[in-house]
Design a protein that fits this description.
single chain; alpha+beta; two-stranded antiparallel ribbon; PSI_Ycf4_assembly; Photosystem I assembly protein Ycf4; membrane; 2 helices; 147 residues; plastid
Length: 147
């Protein structure tokens, strides 16, 4: 929800705390955990999950590959959950007509450049282009050409 007055317009940016990221984080975590448990079950030779008959899966090569996919999926899901908890990409765009200033603030990954803050004059903007794409991978991008 944007905030607007006579001279100032503030547009908040959602970032990585979107419903789709939460869903993908859960799906990838549960899927990779399942792969890892089936791979471990085939290595141990007994069922850790009663849903799958792991005695039918030979550890080398199927169980080993499933364990690898499980570990890789856990790394990917941990990346998702870290970006969600750090709220990477969130921030705001502020347009101040009275002062003639545009401020863009975003949160990044932890480190030296965690806070991204760009400030410039409105008169320095040469052109503005807005790109909106709908669908499954919807996105809105604001391009500004500055002197």
């Amino acid at each position: 929800m944007s905030w607007r007055s006579e001279h100032i317009w503030i547009e908040p940016i959602t970032g990585s705390r979107k419903t789709s990221n939460f869903c993908w984080g859960v799906i990838i975590f549960l899927g990779s955990l399942g792969f890892l448990l089936v791979g471990t079950s085939s290595y141990l030779g007994r069922n850790l999950i009663s849903l799958f008959a792991s005695h039918q899966i030979v550890f080398f090569p199927q169980g080993l590959v499933m364990s690898f996919y499980g570990i890789a999926g856990l790394f990917i899901s941990s990346y998702f959950w870290c970006t969600i908890s750090w709220n990477v990409g969130s921030g705001y765009d502020q347009f101040d007509k009275k002062e003639g200033i545009v401020c863009i603030f975003r949160w990044g990954f932890p480190g030296k450049n965690r806070r991204i803050f760009v400030r410039f004059l409105i008169k320095d903007i040469q052109s503005v282009r807005i790109e909106v794409k709908g669908g499954v991978y919807a996105r809105r991008i604001l391009y500004m050409d500055i002197k």
